[in-house]
Write a structure and sequence with these properties.
By secondary structure, this protein is α/β, with parallel strands linked by helices. The protein has seven helices and six strands. The chain is globular and about 50 Å long.
Length: 198
């Protein structure tokens, strides 16, 4: 699958999703936007490498998964990468976290970097695109852009945790959102206490 990481706050969502996907043996093609490098530095005081090979090592270290699964990282400016083509086969794409800037560009059909191009490909090919917006409050413009994406077939999974699974840590709250996002691609690799009813 394709994992896009845009410049919204909440890099932990990308880290936890990658941890679960790689631990379950999935192949992940990851592209982090230019802005995500700045956000990561601000949130965690850590500089993400720009070189794709170094970035793969970086992501594995952050996720705590050294050898499982397969991870290919792509430079944000490499619009000629494999994931930029409609002929590239994938289970789908998740953008997590997703900034409102990215949402706006996708809703307008614009793609100025590889993350946006890969997402645009999913839309034009009628494939699965899951957007995990991390913003509050949402303006009318944000809501209209999200509606446009939903009308184009994207699934919108806001980064809103639930409480019925009795979270004991921040990671539990994050994993709930990760699990619900991956559910949209029929990927079940996050240990999650699901609602069982009465």
């Amino acid at each position: 699958m394709i994992l896009g990481v845009s410049g919204a706050s909440g890099m932990i969502y990308a880290v936890r999703s990658l941890k679960h996907l790689l631990s379950a043996g999935y192949t992940v093609d990851l592209v982090a936007s230019r802005a995500s490098h700045q956000v990561w530095l601000k949130e965690d005081g850590v500089q993400m490498p720009t070189n794709p090979e170094q970035q793969a090592d970086f992501w594995r270290e952050q996720a705590g998964v050294q050898s499982a699964g397969k991870l290919r990282c792509h430079a944000w400016g490499n619009v000629g990468a494999s994931i930029a083509s409609g002929s590239f086969r994938a289970l789908g794409m998740v953008i997590m976290p997703c900034s409102m800037s990215t949402v706006g560009k996708l809703a307008a059909g614009l793609s100025s970097d590889l993350l946006e191009r890969a997402a645009d490909v999913q839309i034009k090919e009628g494939r699965s695109l899951v957007v995990v917006p991390r913003e509050t409050p949402l303006s009318l413009i944000h809501l209209r852009n999200l509606t446009t994406l939903a009308e184009a077939g994207a699934r919108i999974v806001p980064a809103i945790p639930a409480w019925y699974h009795r979270p004991q840590s921040v990671e539990d709250l994050v994993d709930f959102v990760v699990a619900r996002a991956l559910d949209q691609l029929a990927i079940d690799c996050v240990p999650l206490r699901r609602w069982e009813g009465k």
